[in-house]
Amino acid sequence: MRQVLETKGCSLAVGELPQGCRQCIEGRKLVLFVSGVCDQDCFYCTISHGRWQVDKGFANERQINSDADILEETKTSGAMGAGITGGDPTQRLERVVHYIKVLKENFGKDFHLHMYTHGIGFTKEKLKMVYDAGLDEIRFHLNKNAVLDALAIRKENKRKWKVGMEVPCIPGMQKYLCGLVDFLEQAGADFINLNEMEFSERNDKRMMEQHGLRQAEGSLTAVEGSYETGQKVLEYARVHAKKLTVHFCTAGLKMNAQLKNRLINRAQNIRKPFEKITEDGFLLKGIIFGQPLGKIAEQLKNLKISEKEFSVEQKKNRVEISAELAKKLSKKLKFKIALVQEYPSAEPWDFEVEPLNYKPDVAKAI
Fold it and tell me: Which residues pair with 63 in a beta bridge?
């Protein structure tokens, strides 16, 4: 008898996880957002206002202006694969095919690529385009016919791409979801990924007011009842699915494993010698404010502090040092000094600032 097991990312699964999920949990997947354009408007879509129907691409948080942006972000983040998403990527299919080829050519055939799509209007001819380009795994959101076409392509060709579905775990919809498990099992698909439903800045009002959904107790984003529905589907799959993998991807996994590990991997590749990486993947350091910055650097040198122990950041309008040194200097220098936890993205920002020798300007912060 199959079992429901907990993964390293604290999600739940029956069967072996798809490679796309395994890499995602480890933070080794580049999030390749092709475009915000989509011809559907699902009420549970978590895409932000800033990206919805906006025809811009992003590699993690880095905006894509050229192939070089994708390649640089892939290297910097230590990615071993990429998850192609949107919007719906098939709305910009030529772009998708190009990106697949660029990534395979630069990082090799083992660089794992999976793609999400609703599959509506995704004909067998179009599917063959991404298959031939080198896509390793495809996840359909809505269209059963597209699943069957993708499986037919696998049967007709030598290379074995993985085929499955990825759908939201809507509270109370276990009968429908169990039906998808049966369909995929009988069709010979590889997996179904059930996402715990989450609120976002764009969907929260719609989900609450039009669909009566509520926030789960103890969670900032999860929808009440989604977790319990996922458990019921997993129990059904444990008994009725002989080969199909059923993975319940929790809201906690996304924040506490996927994002955190991706940040840690990126931080390790970009950290300055004096910066420390927190358990959440942020860069911990000290900062000194004041003008001119050259005067701060001069005082640090006068204190016999090596140039390797600090960095003059003109764009950020500050000098950066280690957290330990910042604590010591806050009692000696008249400049404003603080501790900072910096989000290590392509466009870094201060997640948390702790003043050491001055009071924060509350009015300005508000």
Answer: 58
Taking each helix axis from N to C terminus, what angle separates 124-133 and 144-156, rounded to the nearest 10 degrees? 50
Nearest-angstrom CA–CA distance, 320 and 341: 12
| C-beta separation of 119 from 142 below 8 A | yes
Least confident of 213-222, 226-235, 312-321, 357-366: 357-366
pLDDT tens digits along 335-354? 999 999 999 999 999 999 99
User: Which has the closest alpha carbon to 245: 2, 59, 70?
Assistant: 2
Nearest of 44, 31, 20 to residue 191 by alpha carbon? 20
Degrees to nearest 5, angle at CA 232 with 229 and 237: 125
The residues pairing with 116 across neighbouring beta strands, listed in sequence order, are 139
List of residues 6+ apart from 35 with CB closer than 8 A: 54, 55, 56, 57, 86, 87, 89, 91, 92, 95
Structure tokens at 347: 């466009």
Please write the tens of the pLDDT for every residue from 63-83: 999 999 999 999 999 999 999
- Distances from the Cα of 185 to the Cα of 129, 132, 133, 192, 246, angstroms: 26, 25, 27, 10, 10
Alpha helices, DSSP H only, in the chain?
19-25, 67-77, 93-107, 124-133, 144-156, 174-187, 204-211, 226-240, 251-253, 260-270, 293-302, 323-329, 362-365
Confidence of residue 365 (pLDDT cuts 50, 70, 90): very low
Report how far Cα 28 is from the mean position of its chain's Cα atoms: 10
Please compute, for residue 252, the number of CA atoms within 13 A of its CA located in the half-sphere on the CB side: 13
Question: Contacts from 156-162 at CB under 8 Å and sequence distance 24+?
Answer: 157/131, 159/131, 161/131, 161/135, 161/136, 161/137, 162/18, 162/19, 162/20, 162/114, 162/136, 162/137, 162/138, 162/190, 162/191
